[in-house]
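Kindly review both lines to help learners:
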Amino acid sequence: MLIRKATNDDLPVLLQFEQGIITTERPFDSTLKPDPISYYDLKAFIASAEVQVLVAEIDGEIAGSGYARIKKNPDAYYDFEKYAYLGFMYVLPAYRGRGVNQAIIEDLKKWAADQGLAEIRLEVYNNNIGAIKAYEKVGFEKRMIEMRIRL
């Protein structure tokens, strides 16, 4: 498995991955607009020095993706000003269970540390048990639960 920085040449596959993420998350959130929607500006992320977009290649095929993005901490009561926000985590179904997600996260952790960051955060739907287990497997802990009510 090769983990590498994404390029603009990868955009067609990455845009398909984005739709795969949306399809997976749609059952967890009834407030998502009808298709077509987009979560990310992947071209801008690939070009940004404040975002690291990675892909995992297996036998020449892009099997997974993920990014870490530097975000400013809006809350002055924490002991850090910036952190890395993890997103765009997707693995093709044929490659799940083979450590792809873990390998991408490990490289993103290294990138975040190289940026002088001491924390990585992410969001995951409460009922997405598979994703929660995958994130816990690489060391993430639940800290806060967001609660919402539709009016």
In short: The chain has four helices and five strands. Residues 2-137 form a domain with the Aminopeptidase fold (CATH 3.40.630.30).
